[in-house]
Design a protein that fits this description.
Helix content: 40-55%
Radius of gyration: 24 Å
Strand content: 5-15%
Largest sheet: 4 strands, antiparallel
Shape: elongated
Number of strands: 10
Distance between the termini: 92 Å
Number of helices: 16
Structural class: alpha+beta
């Protein structure tokens, strides 16, 4: 180092960094010790044993709890939070025959992974300008450490019963990132505020995925389900997804700590209303190129167009949009992807009508994929029973 460690007033440097944070595009910054997250390990192991993981996490639990497996001889972790908007100005409305889907707020504006990496790069430049040979390791979301555990230790906020970090200033409408360093920054104190006796988020979860305070069964979480690629076989879960195309905000929307909170001061995070509340039927015919042009800048694009299209089909079924039957019948007849055909069959069964039943009857003859065929049979039987019940009641 150009200056030895003893030449630097680390408390003063920390204070200067906190003052500089807004100019770096960071809304809140906190400092934590880089000790292993010992208590977290047991929680993660139990979570895995119960089958509650999403599968998107870092598989090595040791890496998730031990910063030294990412950066040798770490001494502190810098946690950052960037606030994002919670309200959409002049949102377009769904109308009969022109229904719309929704992207969660975490997918509004530019992909937050890019935004947070930019902020961490600015932070690294600031530190290196003052400590040139500092060793730093930054991560956002897909890194090894658990963002929420770091943020809680660093005093950014507390982990709420909805599993989100809730900050006193910005509620839970924040993106998180962290930087492991070999610098001895003094740690901040954790936030003492908590959720108290409130269980509104747990009660409001559409699929009962919040199985306890701060405990999430990701396999039932709507946000996770919207990001999967296959057929969602549980019909109740299909219904609970509603018109969500990516993600779910329910447990944050109902949180009293988020009431009235809306920050829109980061230009990159401003939502395009037509992108985040798009018309559903045009999504069914999107090419890969059109998908990239329309959604490529959003965090919702990371799984490709298939989940978005499947979820659009679910939404049309949940809206019972009869005007979508010709398109859905065409997908059932011609689409190469069994998860799209199977979901189209479910939607036709939910919408109903003679045209839907005819499409399902025809699909029964040529569908060869087992999972898609099951969806065809279930939907077909539902409509047959509905038709028989209608005829029976008419005869009476």
């Amino acid at each position: 180092m150009s200056r030895t460690e003893h030449d630097i007033d680390w408390g003063k440097l920390k204070s200067e960094l906190k003052e500089a944070a807004p100019q770096l595009g960071i809304d809140k910054i906190g400092f934590a010790a880089a000790d292993p997250f010992t208590e977290l390990k047991g929680i993660l192991l139990k979570h895995r044993a119960k089958g509650f993981e999403s599968g998107f996490e870092e598989r090595d639990i040791e890496k998730r709890v031990d910063p030294s497996l990412t950066l040798a001889e770490p001494r502190s972790i810098v946690s950052i939070a960037v606030a994002y908007p919670s309200k959409l100005k002049d949102p377009p409305r769904s109308e009969p025959g022109a229904y719309r889907g929704m992207l969660s707020r975490s997918a509004w504006g530019t992909d937050y992974h890019h935004v947070l990496r930019n902020r961490l790069e600015r932070l690294a430049d600031w530190i290196h300008a003052r400590v040139p040979d500092a060793r730093l390791a930054s991560m956002v979301d897909t890194g090894a450490l658990v963002d929420r555990a770091v943020a809680e230790r660093a005093g950014i906020g507390w982990v709420g019963k909805n599993c989100s970090v809730i900050t006193p200033e910005f509620g839970s409408w924040v993106y998180l990132g962290e930087m492991i360093t070999n610098l001895p920054f003094p740690p901040d104190q954790p936030v003492l505020e908590s959720c108290g006796d409130c269980t509104i988020c747990i009660d409001a979860c559409p699929t009962d995925a919040l199985v306890g305070p701060g405990q999430l069964n990701a396999q039932r979480c709507v946000s996770y389900l919207t990001q999967t690629k296959g057929i969602i076989e549980d019909d109740k879960l299909k219904e609970k997804i509603g018109n969500r195309l990516y993600g779910c905000d329910t447990c944050q929307i109902v949180c009293p700590k988020n009431k009235g909170i809306h920050f829109d001061h980061h230009p990159e995070l401003q939502p395009d209303p037509e992108q985040v509340k798009p018309l559903l039927k045009p999504l069914l015919e999107m090419s890969n190129r059109e998908f990239k042009e329309r959604f490529g800048s959003s965090a919702a694009s990371w799984r490709g167009k298939k989940p978005i299209q499947r979820n659009a089909i679910l939404a049309l079924g949940n809206f019972r949009d009869a005007t979508a039957v010709p398109q859905l019948a065409e997908l059932l007849r011609r689409d190469e992807r069994p998860e799209i055909r199977g979901t189209a069959a479910w939607a036709l069964g939910r919408i109903g009508g003679e045209a839907a039943l005819e499409a399902l009857d025809a699909a029964r003859e040529h569908e060869r994929d087992d999972a898609a065929r099951r969806e065809v049979e279930k939907a077909r039987m539902k409509l047959r029973e509905r038709k028989d019940d209608h005829v029976g009641s008419a005869e009476v």
